[in-house]
Amino acid sequence: MVLSKKRSRHVIEEIIALFPDAKPSLDFRNHFELLVAVMLSAQTTDA
């Protein structure tokens, strides 16, 4: 399923409207730290 740019933008706007105060739970200060945090989070379990 491929969404048009217009439809994609609408979906994103709806999500932002539903969750206006959403914040990432990963702690990072720059793009490299975000990359490493995502890679490490994929290796951990939630249990």
UniProtKB/TrEMBL annotation:
InterPro entries: DNA_glycosylase (IPR011257). GO terms for molecular function: catalytic activity. One of its GO terms (biological process) is DNA repair. This is Endonuclease III. It comes from human gut metagenome.
